[in-house]
Specification:
Elements lengths: L4 H22 L3 H21 L3 H25 L15 H24 L8 H4 L5 H9 L4 H22 L11 H6 L2 H4 L13 H13 L2
Length: 220
């Protein structure tokens, strides 16, 4: 069975995505896991672009790599994680970062080569390859007709994940100050402002303020 360059590139992207996903779930350092997850997202985006789903690939890079990863890191920093070792320096994260950057560069070059050598997508879907329909239009029709139920299930799962992330950050910790909206709404103006009457006192002059010190120095 012969493989052309497009098929080999697709298999390489898929293998890289699987390996990076395995490294993500086995890494004990959250920063390393985030870097491997970036590589996973980018590799999956490359497989989609090679397969003819350019819109999904670009959306994955822009949305997940650019926005969701920032949210992941924000949630990690909000959890009860010992951050002292994570702040010791970025030099020890440099090897993993260089590996991820080099692999992503190789994938981009391979993707450019695939698109330059062949304009025919790898997917076997005749609707995308033969019919003159934009990729976004075909995706919208398939998503809201044939795959409506999986799309709604994925939306529910993402909503539950957002609620769970918020609940993790709202745990009661000792020493932390929290707001009580019900008490804030019941507060009155007299509780916020209190007038106090005090007698005015004349501040001492500089000579009077220095006099006790001079007397103390003169005392044997």
């Amino acid at each position: 069975m012969s493989f052309d360059f497009t098929t080999l590139a697709f298999l390489a992207f898929a293998a890289t995505a699987a390996g990076a996903a395995l490294a993500t779930i086995t890494s004990r350092n959250p920063v390393h896991a985030a870097l491997w997850l970036v590589l996973t997202f980018f590799s999956v985006a490359c497989t989609w672009i090679v397969g003819g789903a350019e819109f999904l690939g670009v959306a994955l890079v822009l949305v997940y790599v650019g926005a969701v990863m920032v949210l992941f890191l924000f949630v990690v920093m909000m959890l009860d994680v010992d951050l002292a070792p994570l702040r010791e320096g970025y030099v020890r994260y440099l090897p993993i970062g260089l590996i991820v950057a080099v692999v992503m560069l190789v994938q981009m070059l391979g993707l450019i080569g695939v698109r330059a050598l062949s304009q025919t997508p790898l997917a076997d879907n005749a609707a995308v390859a033969t019919v003159d329909v934009p990729n976004t239009t075909w995706l919208a029709r398939a998503l809201f007709t044939e795959f409506m139920l999986p799309f709604e299930v994925a939306a529910v799962i993402l909503t539950v994940a957002v609620v769970a992330a918020v609940m993790l950050t709202l745990r009661r910790r000792p020493g932390a100050r929290h707001q009580n909206p019900s008490e804030q709404s019941r507060v009155k103006a007299s509780d916020r402002l209190r007038m106090i009457k005090m007698d005015a006192e004349k501040p001492p002059t500089p000579v009077e303020a220095a006099a006790p010190d001079s007397a103390t120095e003169a005392t044997p």
